[in-house]
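FW: tagging you since you asked about this chain on Friday. Here's the raw sequence from the shared folder, copied in full. Didn't touch anything.
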Amino acid sequence: MILLISISQIPIITIALVTFILFVAFRIRTLRAKEVKRDEAFWERERMANLTPARDLSAIDYITIPIEKFPLSFFVENPDEEADMIIDELTELSKTRLLNLNGKTNTDLKLEYGRKNLPEMQQIDERFSRVTVLLCDLAKCFMEKEKYAEAAQILEYGMSIGSDISSNYTLLGECYKKLGDEDKFSDLRQKVDSMDFLMKGAVLRSLDAMNTDH
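HL: got it, structure written out here
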């Protein structure tokens, strides 16, 4: 004898469980399909990147460090061992090729500059990152001497070249507060808010806290 069971006789919990299992299975298949497409797209970009001819690096408009415009005479008159070391390193880096390559992957670099130029572009990226760190360190040396206008000048340059070092912006905000320049502080916050970098949220919170403290 064949038993016919109506849907109404199946426990609701069983229906829910089967529905959930089917949903999970569908979701897994969908995610796997997307992952496969992402992998295929990545390897296709990588294949194209490895075929990209080397670009003429001498024709690029590189970032220059205006050492001669920095307020460094203060440390000539007031020698500081740490500041002197930073200035010496910045001076050496100012003679090299520098570019802001933040956020670019090796594949991006090969597509834009050619596979053969990848090692050089990686060095350029490393040098730029080092410059952004040194600028903050030099600004701190000025701030320790309560030379906030000079520190601000250094940090403003860091901002102009797109530094993604969070302290570049928090220190600059502190300098503006010390100098009583609320207009520049407001402009700085707007600038940070328009940027896209990892520590943006933390920087904005720090700047807002400075407003509260003052």
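FW: The radius of gyration is 27 Å.
HL: agreed, and The CA atoms of residues 133 and 165 lie 7 Å apart.
FW: great, closing this out.
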